[in-house]
Design goal:
By secondary structure, the protein is of the alpha/beta class. It contains nine helices and nine strands. The protein has a single domain, classed as Nucleoside phosphorylase domain (Rossmann fold, 3-Layer(aba) Sandwich), CATH 3.40.50.1580. Helix 6 links the parallel strand 7 and strand 8. The longest helix is centred in the C-terminal third of the chain and has 24 residues. Bound molecules: 1-O-phosphono-alpha-D-ribofuranose and guanine.
């Protein structure tokens, strides 16, 4: 996306927003079913993506296509921008579009970003409903498919060509998060730490893929977030990522043997068939809806603790 496009977006925002909302201190990216994370904002001005050059349209159910600017917290409040609806590569968006809002946030002066997502659990110790503070990632499309939003000419002499990622997930923000969880009296098991595997989607994992990702060290898996993290880090922002576990990825220790079942049927022995275990986006959205309030309080508390 060219500098002219970004300049056009910034001009449009300057025309639509009051002065006190134009330089947000922090940004929130709302994952699938999590758009209500922004409902704690006051003085909200919503800007539809369609009003902004360079923005795509989010086509996934559970993702609106709106930027919400507002104030958070008591007194004068902290200006915040929330992305209600993100872009995924599987929708057909180039990665430059997927990360375009992050580029715009950087130009608006955003220093801290909280990125949320819905994810499948690979780690059996993470039940549905757990919130996972991401401390690392495994980006299969980067490693194997040359899908990286930082490909291309260096954006400016101020950007880093070879971006280190060993510090991608801000310890400072994660520390605030666990303090926020304590202040919100969240049960200890409700907030865990783990590694996010980014896959391109839109297919969910086969059992063998789930087993592979787990063996490679991932705790949760999803189809978003990592491109946004890479762009945010390239822009020098501090990043906090929260994954909400919406389903368990099926990783059977042994496969159901259709061969054995047929042999049993033919021999007249009883056969117990296991229920089918398939995930759906409806299930993902339903868990998002159930947990949105807890996520919202946590995110709001972290933002209120920023200095
Ligand atoms: O990562 P978010 O956008 O929260 O959405 C997750 O949920 C969708 C699949 O149900 C995928 O888009 C996956 O990435
Ligand atoms: N890839 C992937 N993305 C998800 N988003 C929510 N659940 C899942 C899942 O099980 N797998």
């Amino acid at each position: 996306m060219s500098e002219d496009t970004i300049a056009g977006t910034l001009d449009a925002l300057a025309g639509l927003l009051p002065e006190h909302l134009l330089n947000p201190k922090a940004a929130i990216v709302c994952g699938s079913g999590l758009s209500t994370l922004a409902s704690s904002l006051r003085d909200v001005v919503e800007v539809p993506y369609s009003a902004l050059q360079g923005f795509g349209k989010s086509t996934v159910p559970g993702h609106k296509s709106v930027l919400a600017f507002g104030l958070l917290g008591p007194g004068a409040g902290v200006p915040v921008v929330a992305m209600l609806g993100r872009f995924h590569a599987y929708e057909g968006h180039p990665l430059s579009t997927v990360v375009y809002p992050i580029r715009v946030f950087a130009k608006l002066g955003v220093q801290n970003i909280i990125i949320t997502n819905a994810a499948g659990a690979l780690n059996p110790n993470l039940p549905v409903g757990t919130i996972v503070a991401i401390h690392d990632h495994l980006a299969i499309p980067n490693m194997a498919g040359a899908l990286n939003p930082l490909f291309g000419p260096l954006r400016s002499p101020d950007h880093v060509r070879f971006l280190p990622l060993s510090d991608a997930y801000s310890p400072r923000l994660r520390r605030l998060l666990f303090r926020a969880a304590h202040a919100e009296q969240l049960p200890e098991a409700a907030l865990a730490e783990g590694t996010y595997a980014w896959v391109s989607g839109p297919t969910y994992e086969t059992p063998a893929e789930g087993r592979f990702l787990r063996a490679a060290g991932a705790d949760v898996v999803g189809m978003s977030t990592v491109p946004e993290v890479l762009a945010a880090r390239e822009e020098g922002m501090d990043v906090l990522v929260l994954s909400l576990v919406t389903n368990a990825v099926v990783i059977p220790e042994t496969y159901r043997s259709i061969k054995a079942e047929v042999e049993a049927e033919l021999a007249g022995r009883p056969v117990v068939q296991p229920p089918p275990a398939v995930v759906s986006h409806e299930e993902v959205l339903a868990v998002g809806k159930q947990k949105a309030e807890v996520m919202k309080s946590l995110v709001a508390r972290v933002l209120s603790m920023l200095d």
